[in-house]
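Hey team,

Sharing the histidine kinase run so nobody has to redo it. Sequence (378 residues) first:
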Amino acid sequence: MNIFTRRKPQPPESGLPDSIAVISALPVPVVVLDAQNRFRSANPAAEQFFQLSFGSLAHIGLEELVPPDSRLFALVDQVRNQDAPVSDHDLTLDSPRLHRTGVAAHGAPLPEMPGAVVLTLQDGSKAQKLDRQLNFRGAARGASAMAQMLAHEVKNPLSGIRGAAQLLEQNASEDDRELCVLIQDEADRIRDLVERMEMFSDRPIEQGVVNIHEVLDHVRRIASRGFASHLRIIEDYDPSLPSVWGNRDFLIQIMLNLVKNAAEAVDPQGGEIQLSTAYHHGVRIAIPGSRERVHLPLQVSVRDNGPGIDEDVRATLWEPFVTTKRGGQGLGLAMVAKLVADQGALIECDSRSGRTIFRLSLPMPPADLPASPETRSE
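Structure output:
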């Protein structure tokens, strides 16, 4: 029985809230392990941490989720041996079913159950990913300024250079004509690069109610008829997911970039891409200079079974001109991060060998938005 969420709360004494209800409401993962390290209870945050419901956790032990050499087992044993609280930090929980880094753990004995341990877990990697994503907003402003400078200072003289090369080509020798064509081709290539950089400019975007499943269906059809026609695309959608608040065209562009990256990363033979949606309690981020916090409970994921992203690349994954592709310009994921930030959303990457997941967390439409036919039908 899940003592945190399944037991009916008793009337509180002295006006204090019931402790079980409080633990269930905590955003921090809390579990109870019995003397055999089997899960006896888990609050909703713990279910999300392990990506398993309590019904699934109740049938397994901690050793099925955490490697046997993990320091977490040493912490649990120390709690039992000393009959006192023990804490540890910067733990890595890495197994086929779980991948968490930078985890802080706190264990304490449970007197009502001999040998039982109450375990609190905090995922530091989540905070680090969110910090990097929020920091990118500042970097995006720098990219915007650079884009405006490039557009103004480069495109005009570039047109003059190309025009001069065309004039020279008319009266040039065969060898010189080849050089003139080369100048024109390079001028075109630079112009295309500058035009792509212009997309980083700080232009206000229009947002509205968007059916994310229609967006994903559109992206899947483009991918399956083109660059991913040789791959298996799996859909795992939550049909009850409400509409998101965003820009439909930009969401299509974001998802196309993510799916195309996944298609280029997987093996042409046996490669798979999974598109999924789910509702999570999500994250709440503070808006600088405001007391308002934005709730991002709607999650869209793109998962592939490719080789994963090198750890040294992940730290700069969202920055312009960072790429591991031959001939790549490194603007795809930088553009994704810019478009995500412009819509008040967040994106994170979880990658290891054989599995890479990009998770996009999106807001719901404002509560005071007038009901449209689409929102009323939901």
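Residues 19-124 form a domain with the Beta-Lactamase fold (CATH 3.30.450.20).

Ping me if you want the raw files.
A.
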